[in-house]
Amino acid sequence: MLEKRYDFSSREEHWQEYWRENEIYKFNPEAEERYMIDTPPPTMSGNIHLGHIASYTQLDVIARHQRMLGKSVFFPFGYDNNGLPTERYVQKNSKLKMNEITRGQFIEKCYDAIDELKPIYREVFFRAGHSADFDETYSTITPRTQEISQRSFLDLYKKGEIERRNSASLWCPECRTTIAQSEIDTAELDSVMNYITFGIKDSEERLKIATTRPELLSACVCVFVHPEDEARAHLVGKTAISPLYNAEVPIIANPDVDREKGTGAVMCCTFGDEADAKWQKEYNLPILEAIAYNGKMTALAGEFEGLKVIEARKAIIEKLRETGILYDQTPLTHPVATHERCGTAIELLTKPQWFIKLLDHKDELYQAGLDCKWYPEHMQKRFLNWVDGLKWDWCISRQRFYGIPFPVWYCEDCGEVILADESDLPVDPSATQPKCACPKCGGTKFKPENDVMDTWATSSLTPQICTDMLTKKGLDDTYTPMNLRPCAHDNIRVWNFYTIAKSLLHFGKLPWKDVVIHGWGLSATGTKLSKSKSNGGTLGPVDTYKKYSADATRYWTSNASLGKDIYITEEEFKNGFKLMQKLWNASRFVLPFLEGYTPREIELLPMDCWIIGCYKQTFERFMSYMEKYEMGLALNELEQLFWNFCDNYIEIAKNRLYKPEVYGEHAKESAQYTSHTVLRGMLKLFSIYMPHIAEEIYQDAFAEFEACKSIHISKYLDLGKYTGNDVSAGNEVCEIVSKIRGYKSQKGLSLKEELKKVTITGAPQFVKDCVDDIRAVCNIVNLEFADGEKDVIIEE
RNA sequence: GGGAGCUUAGCUCAGUUGGUAGAGCAUCUGCCUUACAAGCAGAGGGUCACAGGUUCGAGUCCUGUAGCUCCCACCA
Questions:
Q1: Rounded to an integer, what distance in angstroms lies between the CA atom of residue A695 and that of residue A6?
Q2: A78, A123, A152, A690: least buried by Cβ within 10 Å?
Q3: Closest by alpha carbon to A426, among A153, A157, A143, A80?
Q4: pLDDT tens across A88-140, in order?
């Protein structure tokens, strides 16, 4: 018997523990049919919020759906605790500066932070009723993961896909590390265009040049003009003299120059922007470093040495003004590349870095984008677009403390790269030494590579890291391509892209077949929920579970459209809560009539056939939506059926169930069979969205009947193909009932009010066969049928 | 500048292959009905962004326009 009230707060926890103890969600690698998900490990960088719950719950709905199709579902859970986000979190919360403590101490701090955060993260997901295995989880910083990640490095190095190059790379002066193209944001910043003049050697002429980066004047290596620039044609081949520094630089004609921009003459520095870097390579120009890794000017800048870039810019402008070299200024706003993590304008600096070759593989990457199935489909374009615009190889060196080290030393004598032995992985080259002498020069002194790898170099291996929990084989492709990678739309060019790249480079195949793109959880005002910013006022996940239940929280998130952002509104939690109550109450009505009842096949009354037809129709639509990962639309279909069941079917069945002495035992049994079947079927469909209450009711009423330990490992109730005939006729009955209810409503009568006589005209045979049901549900003394136009005539 | 998506009821959104506009929320009216008042019944509410075109017929297909959102490019 179900209690009058469903006490979700205690029952939800009860079932969570039950599922865990009984290993309901355990993956069976031997299963005939498997469904494997490459779960995104949440980044451990602070407080977890409802946005996470939104996307992970959608994923859980998918996992549960696949499980109820009879597949064994691999739904791992992991923690992404490797790298910059965690590092920044630790720095911020402990108010530490990187240069004030040792690397070892800092790493300890990071591990401590992870230990504190892990249980919080686990709790939030576990209490949402997620069907992942929380007892065996992975993390992106464990020794085992480090081993896999380093092995990936060695493998790609040996394949010739990784190399160390000394070239321009994207540098964040705030984080003091190189970053990748994918980590760039663009910010619209105010700036000033400064018009200055260069001298010309052996000439009185001055050459006008515009620049937004006068602080790089000391690193000016060349001046370009357009080949068709007649006014300046005579200068090509001559030597320009930079102001203040009096450096002699060549004047070269270059078709890349945009004659409309600035003055039409460009100074090329090391490096003002990507064009500078390109030209440096193209003309083999000298590399002059005016900016140091800490974002301050070097000795090259002369009197401006030690100033930060922005300060130096102000100072040099002042100086240029004083000396009369600056002849004009115009304010402008322009887009500046910034580091997405900290918003600092990035610089291009030269430093030896490790690169994974991507530009050589653009075609394969593009093809991989075509080969994956994207949901929603148009997200594929974003991937292809990104591959198209790829300009940099993937720089994987990071000048940070906390991360996975490169398994690499350099020979102090000859500089040769010495790789760690695979059997020694994971290694920390700063703590150990190579086992043999340098193969090239026989040297025995080595210095370690002190950089660590980009976090994405590791998280791009999640298919290998998570399936390693099954195979213990590390970098292995036994289970790839997996079935599904879920991912937010902002991660298409990052996590998705790199995972595809690694899988292609290592194994020559896709990491997974399907990609589902989910939106962001947005606050009611439409701002993105973020771990680092607080969107004050919004509920936290655990508060929401407490106030509205986990099931209601899940309802909110699963009701979203594929790929679309979802807004947090308490309205939706309330709706979820109401649905839960309704499910409870409907079951509380039906189930007592099913005590001691065992279903057997009998001939069903027309309206019973009708609701079963409705169920079949819903079931088909539900399945086809879920096939496309459209869980929100599937849920809508289901809800429609459920309300129909409550408002129309139960009202009809009620009379037969209560009064078999009036309507007959057969009519009662027909209603019993039908409500048993349809409620059981609907519960299963609901169970992927609201697993707790579905389990509660299932255990009370159906678990024994199905001899199944949990609704979540039972199979959907497929009643066969919907043929389409019975539903429309039954709907007509509902319309007639609705008309009669409307009549009472308009007259201000109670619905139980007795009607003396009702005549239904133009009704088909099906409706006539339902005479008892209609009479009962509308409380009609005398119900008659007549020929003529379809109508309902009521006499009080 | 290149690409993608969106525009349907006051709000949030559905609308599969063209065939009389749908749901939830909100609003209004009525109803304590032996599951549920956190409920039930009923009602009002839309030139489907705009303009053309194809068609017997267009929210749906084609072309164009406008507005919003996102991705990419744009640092002289």
A1: 12
A2: A123
A3: A143
A4: 788 788 777 767 777 778 878 888 888 888 999 999 999 999 999 999 999 99
- Report CA-CA distances (Å) from A553 to A59, A689, A693, A731: 14, 10, 13, 33
Strands A482-488, A512-518: pairing is parallel
- Choose among A603, A555, A601, A607: nearest CA to A577: A555
- Given pLDDT bands bounded at 50, 70 and 90, which one contains residue A3? confident
Q: How many residues does the structure list for chain A?
A: 796
Q: Is the CB atom of residue A268 positioned under 7 angstroms from any atom of strand B?
A: no
Give the integer Cα–Cα distance in Å for A650 and A593. 12
Among A296-305, A405-414, A519-528, which is the least confidently predicted range? A519-528
Residue A254 Cβ under 7 A from any strand B atom: no
d(CA A707, CA A710): 9
Alpha-carbon distance of A74 to A67, in angstroms, equals: 9
Q: Which nucleotide is nearest to A192 (CA to C1')?
A: B75
A778 CA to B31 C1' in angstroms comes to 14
DSSP string of A626-644?
Answer: HHTT-HHHHHHHHHHHHHH
Q: Which nucleotides of B are covered by protein (CB under 7 A)?
A: 2-5, 12-16, 23-25, 29-36, 38-43, 70-76
Look at strands A408-411 and A394-395 and give their pairing. Answer: unpaired
Q: Which residue has the tokens 């374009």?
A: A381
Say how far A746 CA is from B29 C1', in Å: 8
Residues 274-293 of A with CB under 7 A from strand B: 274-275
Q: How deeply is A77 buried, as exposed, middle or buried, from its count of CB atoms within 10 A (0-12, 13-18, 19+)?
A: buried
Question: Rounded to whole angstroms, how far apart are CA atoms A505 and A493?
Answer: 17
Distances (CA, A) of A497 to A56, A257, A372, A390: 20, 33, 11, 11
Question: Minimal CA–CA distance to A121: which of A137, A141, A145?
Answer: A137
Q: Which among A749, A751, A757, A744 is positioned nearest to A777, based on CA atoms?
A: A751
Distances in Å between the Cα of A413 and the Cα atoms of A308, A432, A447, A628 are 36, 18, 10, 60
- Which nucleotide's C1' atom has the smallest distance to the CA of A276? B76
Nearest nucleotide to A388, CA against C1' atoms: B72
Q: Residues of A from 705 to 764 whose C-beta is within 7 A of strand B: which are they?
A: 737-738, 741-742, 744-746, 748-752
Residue A71 — left, alpha, or beta (φ > 0 → left; ψ -120 to 50 → alpha)? Answer: beta
H/E stretch holding A337 reads strand A326-339
SS3 A780: strand
Shortest CA to C1' contact from A259: nucleotide: B76
Residue identified by tokens 């409870």 is A584
Compute how many other C-beta atoms are within 10 angstroms of the C-beta atom of residue A615: 27
Which residues 101-140 on A are within 7 A of strand B at the CB atom?
none
Tokens representing A560 are 């979203």
A701 within 8 A of A591, measured Cβ to Cβ: yes
Which nucleotide's C1' is closest to A379 (Cα)?
B4
Q: Which helix (H) or strand (E) holds A53?
A: helix A50-68
Q: How confident is the model at residue A319 (pLDDT cuts 50, 70, 90)?
A: very high
A644 touches strand B (CB under 7 A): no
- B5 closest protein residue (CA to C1'): A378
Residue A135 tokens read as 């007892």
Q: Which residue is nearest to nucleotide B34 (CA to C1')?
A: A658
pLDDT tens by residue, A327-382: 999 888 788 888 887 888 899 988 889 999 999 999 999 999 999 999 988 899 89
Q: Secondary structure of A732-771 in the HEC alphabet?
A: HHHHHHHHHHHHHHHCCCCCCCCEEEEEEECCCHHHHHCH
Alpha helices in A402-516 (DSSP H): 455-459, 462-471, 497-507
